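Pipeline run #58 for the internal structure catalog. This entry was flagged by the ingest filter as a single-chain record with no existing model, so it goes straight to prediction. Upstream metadata was stripped on purpose; only the residue string is passed forward. Reviewer on rotation: M.T. Logging verbosity set to normal.
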Amino acid sequence: MEHVKNVDTAGFTSDVVERSRETPVVVDLWAEWCGPCKVLGPTLERLADEYQGAFELAKLDVDANPDLARRFQVQGIPTVIAFKDGVPVARFTGALPESQIRAWLKEFVPSEADEKAAVASTIAASGDLATAEGLFREALAVDPVNEKAATGLAEILIAGGRTDEALAALAPLPSTPAVQRLTAAARIAHVDTSTIEDLERKLADDPDNGPLLVQLGTALSAADRTEEGLQHLLYAVGLGGDTREDARVAMLDIFEVLGQDDPLTAQYRRKLASALF
């Protein structure tokens, strides 16, 4: 197989350590007498072929190379050690199911979606957003929950005012800090800021109207009048009633977009806690 090779002590530095500076190398430490090795080995070989050079598989017979087994403190076989940039970065022992091996490989082997998303990010940084958007979408077609692709696409969509599409791209993803921040940004950007003057006039006649306070607070925030927006939302929280939760969630969205180190986040998070409790 093109991406599978046998290695030994003499060639280990060049075939594994140095080679891993160019592409990840997965070392399968095995022995002829080991039953689980005969189960795991073919799975690793098939995956190496499937990944088409995204990683190389190096097979090391521990009986023929005991010094290397001791060097890497191998307590049982099969043991599999991944090398990247010249050093071991991950390992496991035993004949794991294929699904677990695939999950393990994701820690250090870029997928097709990862590679497309990386190229798209570089292109987006150069200003060619249309091409970047297309590549991010191609990456998501391969892996709909690829975070780098989904968040990169969402940033472009939010900047272009296409917030519904941004929220749809983010919806399938786990709730990581980056996803939370962009989801909050999309919800805020979705608000129609052209209604601000009308909402202000209505609120002047009905200052304790909770729904109006929430609408105006979110609109002001979307218009970069963030502290004014937080003031209205905080007042809505203090009023209680049916819109209290809407106001609280809107404030949390603003905190996500501002970031935890922003002075307004610290100030109004304290005020929100006081209003709630």
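catalog note: The first helix runs from residue 12 to 18.
catalog note: The longest strand covers residues 87-93.
status: ready for reviewer M.T.
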